[in-house]
Design goal:
26 strands, Enolase-like, domain 1, five-stranded parallel beta sheet, 10 helices, 418 residues, binds flavin-adenine dinucleotide, FAD/NAD(P)-binding domain, single chain, alpha/beta
C-alpha cells in the first residue's frame, strides 16, 4: 500500500535523498521534510575539507539545488523540527505546535556532537563542529593563518580540521585519548601513517592526553590545560570527540532504541510505518547479521534510497558494503568494509606506506572484510574500492601473499565464479 503522505524528520542527506528517491520512483503523494537548521539539506563532508579550505562554494554542499524542492512539490519546513511523534495516531507535532498526519514517517535526524563538561567550554572561540555555520565561522577564523588552534579529539573530524587549519598556516595541536590517532578505526600501523603525515606538515600531537580545563580572559579562550598540566596557548578550540545519535524523538515515541534507532534491514523501526536512516539508525546488516550504525556519507545516501523504497512497500534491504573517505593534506583515502570485523587484525599492505600510494586489506579467516586505498590511481578500472567491495561481498578467500603481490593486478584478485 502506498502511503498517502510522507513526513521526513531531518533535512540532511538521508532525508533529502529519500525525498528524491520517492519522486524518482513516481510517488505522487505529499512529502514534507522538517529540519532544525535554517539551511536546505547539505552535504557535511566538504565542511571539514574543500569548503573549509575555500576550494568549494555553497553550491558544492547542496544535496540538490534549493529550487528542486518546490519544483518537485516537496514541502521544506526549515527551522521547524519535529517535536514529537504519536505512532498510534500517525501524527507528528512540529516545534511550532502544528500537527500533521502521515502515512509513513522517516526519522533521519542525524547525530549531535558530544560536548565535554570542562571549565571554560563555554568561552568565545570554543565550539564543536558539525554544521555549515560551524564551517563558515571556522573558515573566517583560520583563513588568514597565524592562529593557535587546539583540537580536542584526534578522530576523523579532528584530523581533517587539523589538516585544513595547518594548510592555512595556523599552529595546530591535537589532543587525544589514544596513543595513536585513528587507531581504533584503522589500527596502529595506519593510524601512525596519518600521524606522520600530519607531523610532516607541522601539526603537533599530545597523545595520550586529555583536556583538564580551558582557560580564558574577558570571556575569550586563551588556552587548554592538559591532564599533565601543560598549558597549550589557543585562540580557537574545537571539541571533536565524536557524536551521539539523535534518538530522543524516537525514544519518546516508544520506539526501540539501542545505540541509535533500531531497524531491520529494510530500515523499518519497531513502530508501524516509521522508518529510520542515516547517522541515527542502527540497522541490521544482512552481511554480518548484526546491527551497524554508521556515521558516514554513503550510509546516509544509500539509507535514504532504501528507506524511500521501503516506505513505498518495495522489498529492499540496506545491504551495501559500508564505505567512507577522507582527504588530509596530499592524501586521499577511501575505505570499504566492516571495521568491527577488521578490528584487531593486522592489515596486508599492497604498495608502500612511504610512497603514500597503497592498498591495505583486512582479513578474517582468510576472507577480506575491509580494505583501504590511499592515493590509488583512479584511472585503473575497476577501481580499488570496487575490487575491495566485490571481494568482501563474495566472501572471497585470497591468500595474504597474493593480496600484497603487486604483479597480480587488483581485479585478478576477484575469484572467477563459474
Ligand atoms: C564535518 C563533517 C565531515 C564529514 N566528512 C565525512 C567524510 O569525509 N566521509 C564520510 O563518509 N562521511 C563524512 N561525514 C559524515 C556524514 O556527513 C554523515 O554521516 C551524514 O551527514 C549523515 O547524514 P544524516 O542525513 O543521517 O544526518 P545529518 O546530515 O546530520 O542531517 C540530519 C538533520 O536533521 C536535523 N534534525 C535533528 N533532529 C530533528 C528533528 N527532531 N526534526 C527535524 N530535523 C531534525 C539535524 O539538525 C540535521 O540538520 C562528515 C560529517 C561531518 C560533520
Amino acid at each position: 500500500m502506498t502511503p498517502e503522505s510522507i513526513v521526513i524528520a531531518g533535512a540532511g542527506l538521508a532525508g533529502a535523498t529519500a525525498a528524491r528517491t520517492l519522486r524518482s520512483e513516481g510517488y505522487a503523494g505529499n512529502i514534507t521534510i522538517a529540519g532544525t537548521e535554517p539551511h536546505p539539506p547539505y552535504l557535511r563532508p566538504p565542511l571539514s575539507k574543500e569548503y573549509l579550505l575555500g576550494k568549494a562554494g555553497e553550491d558544492a554542499v547542496e544535496v540538490v539545488p534549493e529550487s528542486w524542492y518546490a519544483a518537485n512539490n516537496v514541502r521544506l519546513r526549515l527551522d521547524t523540527p519535529v517535536a514529537s511523534v504519536d505512532p498510534a495516531a500517525h501524527t507528528v507535532r512540529f516545534a511550532d505546535g502544528t500537527v500533521q498526519g502521515y502515512g509513513a514517517l522517516l526519522l533521519a535526524p542525524g547525530a549531535t556532537p558530544r560536548t565535554l563538561p570542562l571549565s571554560g567550554a563555554d568561552l568565545d572561540g570554543v565550539s564543536t563542529f558539525r554544521t555549515l555555520d560551524d564551517s563558515r565561522r571556522l573558515r573566517d577564523q583560520l583563513a588568514s593563518g597565524g592562529r593557535n588552534l587546539v583540537l580536542i579529539g584526534s578522530g576523523w573530524i579532528g584530523m581533517e580540521l587539523a589538516a585544513a587549519a595547518s594548510t592555512y598556516g595556523n599552529q595546530v595541536t591535537l589532543l587525544g585519548l589514544e596513543d595513536i590517532p585513528l587507531a581504533a578505526a584503522v589500527g596502529p600501523e595506519l593510524g601512525s601513517f596519518f600521524r606522520t603525515l600530519h607531523e610532516d606538515n607541522g601539526v603537533r600531537f599530545r597523545l595520550p592526553a586529555s583536556a583538564r580545563e580551558i582557560t580564558g580572559q574577558n570571556r575569550r579562550v586563551t588556552g587548554v590545560v592538559t591532564n599533565t598540566g601543560e598549558l597549550l596557548p589557543a585562540d580557537i578550540v574545537v571539541i571533536a570527540v565524536g557524536v551521539v545519535p539523535e534518538t530522543a524523538l524516537a525514544a519518546a515515541a516508544g520506539l526501540e532504541v539501542r545505540n541509535g534507532i533500531l531497524t531491520d534491514a529494510s530500515l523499518r523501526t519497531s513502530a508501524p510505518d516509521i522508518f529510520a536512516a542515516g547517522d541515527a539508525a542502527n540497522a541490521l546488516h544482512p552481511f554480518t547479521g548484526e546491527h551497524h550504525r554508521s556515521e558516514h556519507w554513503s550510509n546516509a545516501l544509500n539509507g535514504g534510497k532504501v528507506a524511500a523504497r521501503a516506505m513505498l512497500g518495495q522489498d529492499v534491504a540496506l545491504d551495501t558494503v559500508p564505505y567512507f573517505y577522507t582527504d588530509q593534506f596530499d592524501v586521499s583515502m577511501e575505505y570499504s568494509g566492516f571495521p568491527s570485523l577488521a578490528a584487531k587484525t593486522a592489515p596486508v599492505i599492497r604498495g608502500s606506506l612511504d610512497s603514500k600510494e597503497f592498498v591495505a586489506f583486512w582479513q578474517q579467516d582468510g576472507r577480506v572484510v575491509a580494505g583501504m586505498s590511499v592515493n590509488w590511481p583512479r584511472s585503473v578500472k575497476p577501481s580499488a574500492q570496487k575490487t575491495i567491495k566485490t571481494l568482501i561481498s563474495a566472501r572471497a578467500e585470497v591468500p595474504a601473499e597474493r593480496l600484497a603481490d603487486q604483479t597480480v593486478p587488483l581485479d585478478q584478485l576477484i575469484p572467477v565464479t563459474s
